[in-house]
Structure to design on (643 residues):
């Protein structure tokens, strides 16, 4: 599913200082995998996630997604890949303002090749248990509801890869657990999930853990998923 | 089609951000409304001037000859002109110049006492040839005009204008009645069609037409003309015809250089061209002002859209993350600008119509509703939306989704 070979990312920061955000990282994720990426702030997690999500291009190395080498793609082709193959779930939900839950879920279909299928959007909302809230604006929904709308939106085009960046970071514990249960269900259905988090309890849902430090992978190990792991609290 | 779906997104955004949309529309609305109003006014006053000119001059394919050299202002009368233009000058021009199709003679005076029973009025009396009406594209509304025979026979017949009819014959049929013009009885044989106002705004209907020979021999006792109108065969050759008339009259009046003409030849087409030119300048200035207003409207769109791009970074990031390519972001923002401008244009056209209605009533301009300024205004609003939407749309497409989504 994901084949990353020696990818690096360099940023030039204003005064000619070049920052190595990623240094020759390589790993593979098989279809249906559930991987958590961990590491301290500035370790390159976000950079890696943006590259995996085709929002950013690596400076060097190759990235194959679903058998397709996307590292040399231009903006148009990357946009098509994001639309057809990737679903994003963000920490701050990122629903469009002044837009209903249903319209948010329909959004990826606007940029796809088919038509905007309202029925499909409604059944996606049903999947996350929000049929009754379909015509509410984002501001009228609770945090947990907003994140579930975002998950429905991420699922609507049947992506092969779901990328979640601290999906529970803005939620309290019980609501966060609900969201994680949804993601685990998706994993059980065979979807590939890559998750970025600081939170041990959240990381415990994954079956593999990749740790980054200073842009390099320092640990990559398989773990037994422990959903509902009780820790001392929410995010550390 | 993806473009249609993106259009729907643009329209939805405009509806959801109503205040911003209205503010953006207002600028264009003001520009378009003023463009429509000012160009309409410019054009309709131009047409109005032309019409008044036509009212006075009749047709334009004529050359007008007045007695006396130099420029005289206003309509000549028997009291003001020198006796240099004779009846046989008119015959000579008509018969000897191939450029001239026909000649009408005029001998006129103003404020002549006219009575019918106990009523009286003081219209202009025009002694004219029987071809007068044809040369001036005027018309008899009721009854008939006098004939060449009646003119030769010094018949005392009159054709009266609308004002005279109103003053002397309220609620009465004037045809066949006898009026007294300066004491001389005349039978009314026809009523003139109303001509409205001349360039100075005075009525052209306070007039009585009588045969020119009758006027000369039975009324005024003068043997010279106040004016003659020569119709040219080829309207394009007005200036040449005027020159031919001049040299014929100089020969007949025995004028040799360096002596100056004792008559004045004018060509209405040339005079009209001058008036039209002056009016066109005014129209151009008004149009310039309106285009400036429209430009300001465009700048309003551009600045509000640019601010909105900064406010909508996150939205742009989300759209990019679900698969919007840069071109599709450009398309959406450009569409928003164009649709806002077009909506402002439509509103501006409606306001312009209303405004034009108010202005024409207030300034008592003729109500000439032209469609051209409105079509031009609509096209301009689309152009303004596109041109001033390009920069914000480009800016929107350059938003880095990674940066936008992080915040």
């Amino acid at each position: 599913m994901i084949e990353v070979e020696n990818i690096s990312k360099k940023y030039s920061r204003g005064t000619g200082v070049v920052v190595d955000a990623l240094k020759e990282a390589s790993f593979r994720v098989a279809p249906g995998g559930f991987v958590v990426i961990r590491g301290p702030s500035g370790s390159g997690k976000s950079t890696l996630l943006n590259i995996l999500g085709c929002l950013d291009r690596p400076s060097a190395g190759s990235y194959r997604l679903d058998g397709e080498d996307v590292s040399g793609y231009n903006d148009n082709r990357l946009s098509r890949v994001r639309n057809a193959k990737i679903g994003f779930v963000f920490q701050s939900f990122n629903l469009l303002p002044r837009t209903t839950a249903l319209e948010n879920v329909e959004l990826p279909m606007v940029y796809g090749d088919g038509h905007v299928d309202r029925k499909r959007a409604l059944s996606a909302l049903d999947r996350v248990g929000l049929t009754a809230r379909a015509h509410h604006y984002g501001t009228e929904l609770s945090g947990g509801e907003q994140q579930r709308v975002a998950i429905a939106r991420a699922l609507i085009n049947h992506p092969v890869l779901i990328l979640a960046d601290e999906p529970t970071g803005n939620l309290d514990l019980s609501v966060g657990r609900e969201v994680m249960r949804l993601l685990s269900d998706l994993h059980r259905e065979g979807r590939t999930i890559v998750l970025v988090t600081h939170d041990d309890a959240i990381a415990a849902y994954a079956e593999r853990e990749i740790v980054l430090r200073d842009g390099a992978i320092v640990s990559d190990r398989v773990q037994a998923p422990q959903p509902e792991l009780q820790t001392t609290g929410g995010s550390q | 089609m993806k473009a249609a779906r993106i259009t729907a997104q643009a329209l939805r955004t405009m509806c959801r951000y109503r205040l911003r949309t209205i503010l953006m529309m207002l600028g264009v609305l003001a520009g378009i409304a003023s463009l429509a109003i000012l160009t309409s006014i410019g054009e309709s006053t131009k047409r109005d001037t032309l019409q008044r000119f036509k009212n006075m001059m009749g047709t334009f394919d004529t050359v007008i000859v007045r007695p006396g050299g130099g420029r005289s202002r206003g309509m000549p009368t028997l009291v003001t002109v020198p006796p240099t233009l004779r009846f046989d000058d008119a015959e000579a021009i008509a018969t000897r110049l191939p450029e001239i199709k026909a000649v009408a003679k005029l001998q006129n005076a103003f404020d002549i006492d006219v009575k019918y029973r106990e009523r009286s009025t003081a219209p202009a009396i025009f002694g004219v040839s029987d071809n007068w009406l044809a040369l001036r594209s005027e018309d008899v509304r009721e009854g008939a005009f006098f004939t060449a025979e009646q003119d030769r026979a010094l018949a005392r017949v009159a054709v009266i204008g609308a004002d005279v009819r109103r003053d002397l014959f309220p609620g009465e049929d004037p045809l066949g009645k006898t009026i007294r013009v300066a004491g001389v009885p005349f039978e009314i044989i026809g009523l003139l069609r109303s001509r409205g106002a001349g360039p100075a705004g005075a009525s052209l209907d306070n007039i009585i037409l009588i045969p020119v020979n009758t006027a000369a021999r039975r009324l005024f006792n003068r043997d010279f003309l106040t004016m003659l109108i020569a119709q040219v065969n080829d309207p394009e050759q007005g200036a040449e015809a005027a020159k031919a008339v001049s040299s014929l009259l100089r020969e007949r009046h025995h004028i040799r250089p360096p002596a100056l003409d004792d008559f004045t030849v004018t060509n209405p087409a040339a005079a009209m061209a001058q008036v039209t030119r002056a009016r066109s300048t005014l129209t151009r200035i008004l149009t310039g002002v309106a285009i400036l207003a429209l430009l300001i409207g465009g700048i309003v769109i551009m600045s509000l859209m640019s601010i909105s791009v900064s406010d909508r970074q996150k939205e742009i990031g989300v759209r990019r993350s679900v698969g919007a390519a840069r071109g599709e972001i450009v398309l959406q923002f450009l569409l928003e600008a164009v649709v806002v401008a077009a909506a402002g244009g439509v509103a501006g056209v409606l306001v312009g119509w209303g405004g034009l209605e108010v202005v024409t009533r207030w300034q008592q301009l003729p109500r000439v509703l032209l469609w051209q300024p409105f079509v031009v205004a609509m096209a301009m609003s689309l152009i303004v939306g596109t041109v001033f939407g390009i920069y914000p749309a480009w800016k929107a497409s350059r938003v880095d989704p990674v940066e936008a989504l992080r915040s």
The longest helix of chain B spans residues 268-311. Residues 2-54+273-406 of chain B form one domain. Chain B has a mean pLDDT of 88.
